[in-house]
């Protein structure tokens, strides 16, 4: 094996990598189900209010896990995790869609409510798949590219820089497809939806930066194949 090739990153053979991928995938699925509800904050001023969706609660954490994967395991391993989550989202979308269209049992009284959640979810899954794939891959690419130049220094620059690029691309693509699914039908509400989503998710990642630092340090110390690049 060429050790130089893996300098600065760990291989994926330990228990930490699959655990991180499982948490990553779970957060993606949870956030996309929660995103079927549009949410408005604060008083309505004229026709304007703060518009977002339920995915805001946990979705920023997917980028925290993505940063950990990128920093410790590199781009190829992170891309694999993104593809796993992508496939599971697609499976979830197909399962919910098929369940909604199968005939309901006579005793089941909630078909309309189920469809009200699941049908928008199918559109949101398409939005989530597109935004997630583009955003997470850009996020991972930026982390790795900056690390190639800065080595182990300036972790904060890698994490914040990747967040700004990845979250902006993810939010713009997701909101462009998902807006109509949660009832957004005006340009002003759409711009608010995009801006609030981007600012909020980026701010969350910056606020939890100390936690991200500690998780990365913890995994690096315990990954036997991790080789710091100096």
Automatic annotation (TrEMBL):
<feature type="transmembrane region" description="Helical">
    <location>
        <begin position="190"/>
        <end position="213"/>
    </location>
</feature>
<dbReference type="GO" id="GO:0022857">
    <property type="term" value="F:transmembrane transporter activity"/>
</dbReference>
<feature type="transmembrane region" description="Helical">
    <location>
        <begin position="156"/>
        <end position="184"/>
    </location>
</feature>
<feature type="transmembrane region" description="Helical">
    <location>
        <begin position="15"/>
        <end position="36"/>
    </location>
</feature>
<feature type="transmembrane region" description="Helical">
    <location>
        <begin position="48"/>
        <end position="69"/>
    </location>
</feature>
<dbReference type="InterPro" id="IPR003744">
    <property type="entry name" value="YhhQ"/>
</dbReference>
<dbReference type="GO" id="GO:0005886">
    <property type="term" value="C:plasma membrane"/>
</dbReference>
<comment type="function">
    <text>Involved in the import of queuosine (Q) precursors, required for Q precursor salvage.</text>
</comment>
<keyword id="KW-0813">Transport</keyword>
<keyword id="KW-0472">Membrane</keyword>
<dbReference type="Pfam" id="PF02592">
    <property type="entry name" value="Vut_1"/>
</dbReference>
<protein>
    <recommendedName>
        <fullName>Probable queuosine precursor transporter</fullName>
    </recommendedName>
</protein>
<keyword id="KW-1003">Cell membrane</keyword>
<keyword id="KW-1133">Transmembrane helix</keyword>
<keyword id="KW-0812">Transmembrane</keyword>
<feature type="transmembrane region" description="Helical">
    <location>
        <begin position="81"/>
        <end position="104"/>
    </location>
</feature>
<feature type="transmembrane region" description="Helical">
    <location>
        <begin position="124"/>
        <end position="144"/>
    </location>
</feature>
<comment type="similarity">
    <text>Belongs to the vitamin uptake transporter (VUT/ECF) (TC 2.A.88) family. Q precursor transporter subfamily.</text>
</comment>
